[in-house]
């Protein structure tokens, strides 16, 4: 059995232990009402599993939002707040967020702010949300195309990770989560990176231990720096360019929207190139990192014209200060360095390196 992880007072439980803890909690608390937030996918694929695990009869209401990053907006929150209010939600209500990162980020923000805060817990159902959104207490929504511009840091009561939900995911969603796991190796644990990069055929059976390791890594970082004043910034490796690429593809009508992990994979290749130019990151490892990501992720067409727009979007990145775009780069694998700036020419060169 995978050991539960304590994260700044929030317990992360795994598989069957999750439901034992959930039932114990529901039994003890006597909530006036339980709301379960789902999107259209988790409503069909995951909700029946969850409802089958709840042992007693409670007053439960299901709230469904649209699936995908396009719905991670304050307008969606307004709709959810209204529905909770109309259905009689009070301070003694519980919100269970059942879904990927969009549902847990948005649902966490709804729970943190409805009546100035009601109890909420997260059940991440995608690999990405299990290894990334599960710890650290980040909640929030996008502001138009700008990622995660509005939100608060507040831990849920608990996080329940059940890898059974991964069986409902298409392969591209599994790969999207793998990008964040590979990132954990690159910024923190070279042995973990080496283990992951050799996973030719990822099966859900391999994943339990690896997911647990990723959650441990992320938890060690966020426990030391809950508010992202220092160490926690290392989790943004690949995300300065990656988020801008993701936003650009999201708002461009003629582009296919990228999954978070697909965009971050491109960001990591390009930011590792910047690392080699600015911090002498070893060239052989740079090429190995590029090959590893391109082994899992198909190359995406990004033109130099696209890159101009992507550079503009980077100016909104939350790590920026005093007008500078700040990058997390690597001196070597597991040796990150914070707040490095780059000139435009190097950014264009990093795209050329990705493309060639």
Automatic annotation (TrEMBL):
A single BP term in Gene Ontology: aromatic amino acid family biosynthetic process
Uppermost EC category: lyase
Endpoints of the signal sequence: none
Domain 3-dehydroquinate synthase N-terminal: 63-175
Keywords of the record: Cobalt, Lyase, Metal-binding, NAD, Nucleotide-binding, Zinc
Cofactor(s) in the UniProt record: NAD(+); Zn(2+); Co(2+)
Tree of life domain: Bacteria
Keyword Lipid biosynthesis among UniProt keywords: no
Pfam family membership, one: DHQS_C
EC number in record: 4.2.3.4
Residues of the 3-dehydroquinate synthase C-terminal domain: 177-320
UniProt cross-references to InterPro entries, sorted A to Z: Dehydroquinate_synthase, DHQ_synth_AroB, DHQ_synth_fam, DHQS/DOIS_N, DHQS_C
GO MF annotations in UniProt: 3-dehydroquinate synthase activity; metal ion binding; nucleotide binding
GO CC field: cytoplasm
PANTHER family given in the database record: 3-DEHYDROQUINATE SYNTHASE (PTHR43622)
Function: Catalyzes the conversion of 3-deoxy-D-arabino-heptulosonate 7-phosphate (DAHP) to dehydroquinate (DHQ).
Name of protein: 3-dehydroquinate synthase
Organism, as annotated: Galbibacter orientalis DSM 19592
């Amino acid at each position: 059995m995978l050991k539960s992880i304590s994260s700044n007072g929030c317990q992360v439980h795994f598989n069957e232990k999750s439901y034992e803890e959930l039932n114990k909690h529901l039994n003890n608390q006597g909530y006036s009402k339980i709301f379960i937030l789902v999107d259209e996918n988790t409503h069909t694929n995951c909700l029946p599993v969850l409802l089958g695990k709840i042992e007693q009869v409670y007053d439960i209401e299901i709230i469904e939002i649209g699936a995908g990053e396009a719905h991670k907006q304050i307008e969606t929150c307004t709709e959810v707040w209204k529905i909770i209010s109309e259905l009689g939600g009070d301070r003694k209500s519980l919100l269970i967020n059942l879904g990927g990162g969009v549902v847990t980020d948005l649902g966490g923000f709804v729970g943190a702010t409805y009546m100035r805060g009601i109890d909420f817990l997260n059940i991440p159902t995608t690999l990405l949300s299990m290894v990334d959104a599960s710890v650290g207490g980040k909640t929030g929504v996008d502001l138009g195309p700008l990622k995660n511009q509005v939100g608060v840091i507040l831990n849920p009561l608990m996080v329940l990770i059940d890898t059974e939900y991964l069986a409902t995911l298409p392969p591209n969603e599994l790969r999207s989560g793998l990008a964040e796991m590979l990132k954990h190796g690159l910024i923190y644990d070279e042995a973990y990176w080496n283990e992951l990069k050799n996973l030719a055929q990822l099966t859900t059976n391999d994943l339990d231990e690896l997911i647990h390791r990723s959650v441990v890594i992320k938890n060690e970082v966020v426990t030391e720096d809950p508010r992202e004043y220092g160490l926690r910034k290392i989790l943004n490796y690949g995300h300065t360019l990656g988020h801008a690429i993701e936003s650009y593809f999201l708002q461009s009508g003629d582009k296919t929207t990228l999954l978070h992990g697909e965009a971050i994979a491109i960001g990591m290749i390009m930011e590792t190139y910047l690392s080699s130019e600015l911090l002498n990151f070893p060239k052989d490892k740079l090429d190995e990192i590029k090959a590893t990501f391109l082994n899992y992720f198909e190359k995406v067409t990004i033109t130099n014209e696209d890159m101009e727009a992507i550079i503009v979007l980077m100016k909104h990145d939350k790590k920026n200060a005093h007008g500078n775009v700040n990058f997390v780069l690597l001196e070597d694998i597991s040796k990150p360095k914070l707040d490095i700036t780059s000139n435009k020419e190097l950014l264009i060169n990093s795209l050329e390196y990705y493309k060639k």
